[in-house]
């Protein structure tokens, strides 16, 4: 049931989609991007990372590219991943959903701030 | 050593995971191990790995297809907002059954709705269905083009002495199929129907001449059926006829006079030798008048079989035939589908008459309304009706846009009827697939989108139809095509006549779709 796995979208999957928004990345690149974009709070371990990647691949939210080297990391060939347009759409709608939630939180005075 | 320990730990994962990602997991471990030095970082690394094992191992075993791990365990609250999505529990069996029943119900409801036409949804859906059902047959349409080009059956008939300049730019290929008749590319608006009704009895090879010098197949065949040499008197009569028509109809009288003078001069200096056959003679005259006027929309034509003296106007029978052909061939919309990455693909093999196909065209365009990019496949499109060119183009702009046509003055008909209500395609990337068989109306579409920088043309240079406008009979075998009005080309001459429209991205026609998909993909990614 791939539908259930991604709906609602787990935060690891959402972070992976966001990390791929700007460029194609290999697994380690994704992990580092996710760590960066969460100020180091989320460090994806291999098990979590690759099972998420597999689910995203199954749902065609990302696609796998040919293996190639990353010059900065030596001569090992790595699988790269790319965001599909469906993945981009889903990430956008998830972000909008979170923004709505944030607005509600603000209206309940749980969180300060005038606009999202 | 550390890697060995982790490799050993990886053996705890089920085989399906190890097969797919063991190497990657080890690679990731090595990367982190290399980059994260120092006691604290190493300790954190091992803690992360331990947490990762604790979270992902059960998932890998409980669900043959691994769950997307929530990864919440790694996330620490620091007074900033965090959102957890709890999608990890398995639903209860009761919920699954209820969900299944509801989905079945919804599916049945949708199929019933599709079957019984309503207003919006069903229109679109039925359009899709019909598209699918005609897909197999439409491949035959594609083949109809080349067959008629070869002029082996020589079906074309010239009629077209009527006057309107806005007209069918070339034979709709479906009509070709249905009636065994093709229509000269330059006959006028109603003549397609006329010729359909009168064609079968009057085989001619005139079609091939209209089909341009670049069309080598037809030229070859033409050579074999060329007529006996003309004698001097016949040549003289044809030249007189050409001159008379030019003076009478050519849009610039001074240029007409110059052409007449040139022809007379050639005649006097004995440039027309007696051994010349009809077709060669017509070609020579064409070159000579073009040399003076620089007007590629001008053509002297030879027909092996007699041209009708009084071409018939449009008949009800002809219209009915055309309508039937269009219905059978889905208005030559061969395929409309949404490719991966939400790229729309429309294969259109002519620009059919809007009076017959307007609703179909609107339904097809609506079915592609939500795509992120659109590909028009005109590789087998032999042209058609300017109204349809304008109608389809209207979807691609959010304001009325001027579309140049060689036979239209700046008039209302030259402006797209944009914006189309409810349409979302106006700002989407457009790719047009073209080939050497892309002709006339399809060149009109391609040329203007290229010049307006609204579309990227992918494939080969197009056929280069002359689109002369009006055809005037000189005698039983000779006629002349003259453009009666002259569209103002904002991009300067020449347009596509004879030379064709060059692609922006040059690839073999058969590779054009693949290339366009790649272009669209990379464009969408940059967004």
Provide a concise account of the structure shown.
The complex is a heterodimer of chains A (116) and B (527). Chain A is mostly helical.
Can you lay out the helices and strands and say which pair or pack?
The complex is a heterodimer of chains A (116) and B (527).
Chain A: H1 2-6, H2 11-19, E1 25-26, H3 27-37, H4 46-58, E2 62-64, E3 68-69, E4 77-78, E5 80-83, H5 85-107
Antiparallel strand pairs in A: 1-5, 2-5, 3-4
Chain B: H1 2-10, H2 15-35, H3 39-62, H4 93-115, H5 120-149, H6 173-179, H7 191-198, H8 206-210, H9 216-224, H10 232-249, H11 253-268, H12 278-293, E1 298-302, H13 316-328, E2 333-339, E3 343-348, H14 354-367, E4 373-377, H15 386-394, E5 430-434, H16 441-451, E6 456-459, E7 470-473, E8 478-482, E9 505-506, H17 512-526
Parallel strand pairs in B: 3-4, 4-5, 5-6, 6-9
Antiparallel strand pairs in B: 1-8, 2-3, 7-8
Helix pairs in contact in B: 1-2, 5-6, 5-14, 6-13, 7-13, 10-11, 11-12, 14-15, 15-16
What does this structure look like?
The complex is a heterodimer of chains A (116) and B (527). Chain A has 116 residues and is mainly alpha-helical. Chain A contains five helices and five strands, in the order ααβααββββα. In chain A, α2 (11-19) packs across α3 (27-37). Chain B is an alpha/beta fold. The two termini of chain B are 45 Å apart. Chains A and B meet through α1, α2, α3, α4 and α5 of A and α2 and α3 of B.
């Amino acid at each position: 049931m791939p539908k259930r796995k991604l709906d609602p979208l787990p935060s690891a999957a959402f972070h992976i989609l966001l990390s791929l928004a700007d460029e194609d990345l290999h697994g380690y690149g994704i992990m580092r991007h996710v760590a960066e974009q969460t100020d180091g709070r989320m460090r994806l371990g291999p098990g979590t990372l690759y099972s998420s990647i597999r689910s995203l691949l199954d749902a065609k939210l990302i696609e796998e590219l040919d293996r190639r080297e990353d010059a900065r990391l030596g001569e090992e060939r790595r699988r790269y991943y790319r965001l599909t347009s469906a993945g981009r759409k889903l990430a956008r709608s998830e972000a909008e959903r979170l923004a709505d939630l944030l607005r509600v939180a603000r209206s309940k005075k749980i969180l300060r701030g005038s606009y999202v | 050593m550390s890697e060995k320990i982790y490799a050993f730990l990886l053996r705890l994962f089920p085989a399906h995971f190890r097969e797919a990602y063991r190497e990657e997991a080890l690679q990731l471990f090595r990367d982190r191990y290399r980059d994260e030095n120092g006691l604290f970082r190493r300790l954190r690394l091992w803690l992360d790995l331990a947490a990762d094992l604790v979270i992902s191992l059960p998932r890998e075993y409980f669900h043959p297809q691994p769950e997307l791990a929530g990864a919440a365990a790694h996330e620490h609250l620091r007074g900033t907002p965090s959102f957890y999505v709890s999608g990890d529990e398995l639903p209860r069996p009761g919920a699954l059954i209820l969900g299944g029943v509801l989905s079945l119900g919804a599916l049945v409801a949708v199929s019933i709705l599709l079957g019984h036409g309503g207003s919006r949804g069903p229109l679109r859906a039925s359009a899709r269905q019909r598209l699918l059902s005609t897909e197999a047959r439409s491949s035959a349409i594609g083949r109809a083009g080349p067959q008629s080009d070869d002029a082996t059956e020589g079906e074309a008939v010239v009629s077209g002495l009527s006057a309107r300049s806005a007209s069918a730019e070339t034979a709709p290929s479906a009509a070709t199929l249905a009636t065994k008749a093709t229509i000269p590319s330059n006959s006028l608006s109603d003549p397609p129907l006329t010729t359909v009704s009168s064609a079968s009895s009057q085989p001619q090879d005139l079609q091939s001449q209209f089909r341009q010098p670049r069309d080598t197949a037809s030229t070859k065949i033409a050579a074999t059926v060329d007529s006996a040499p003309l004698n001097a008197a016949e040549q003289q009569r044809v030249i007189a006829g050409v001159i008379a028509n030019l003076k009478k109809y050519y849009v610039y009288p001074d240029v007409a006079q110059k052409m007449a003078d040139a022809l007379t001069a050639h005649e006097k200096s004995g440039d027309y030798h007696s051994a010349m056959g009809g077709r060669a003679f017509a070609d020579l005259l064409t070159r000579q008048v073009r040399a003076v006027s620089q007007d590629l929309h001008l053509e002297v034509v030879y027909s092996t079989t007699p041209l009708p003296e009084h071409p018939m106007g449009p008949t009800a029978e002809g219209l009915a035939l055309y309508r039937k052909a269009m219905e059978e061939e889905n208005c030559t919309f061969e395929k409309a589908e949404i490719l991966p990455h939400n790229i729309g693909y429309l294969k259109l093999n002519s620009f059919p008459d809007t009076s017959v196909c307007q609703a179909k065209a609107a339904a097809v365009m609506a079915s592609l309304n939500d795509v992120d990019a659109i590909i028009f496949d005109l590789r087998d499109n032999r042209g058609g009706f300017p109204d349809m060119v304008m109608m389809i183009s209207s979807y691609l702009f959010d304001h009325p846009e001027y579309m140049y046509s060689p036979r239209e003055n700046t008039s209302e008909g030259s402006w797209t009827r944009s914006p189309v209500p409810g349409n979302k395609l106006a700002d989407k990337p457009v790719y047009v697939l073209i080939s050497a068989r892309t002709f006339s109306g399809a060149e009109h579409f391609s040329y203007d989108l290229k010049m307006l920088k609204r579309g990227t043309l992918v494939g080969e240079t197009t056929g280069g139809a002359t689109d002369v406008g009006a055809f005037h009979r000189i005698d039983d075998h000779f006629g002349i095509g003259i453009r009666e009005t002259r569209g103002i080309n904002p991009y300067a001459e020449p347009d596509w006549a004879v030379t064709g429209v060059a692609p922006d991205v040059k690839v073999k026609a058969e590779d054009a779709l693949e290339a366009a998909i790649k272009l669209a993909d990379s464009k969408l990614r940059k967004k």
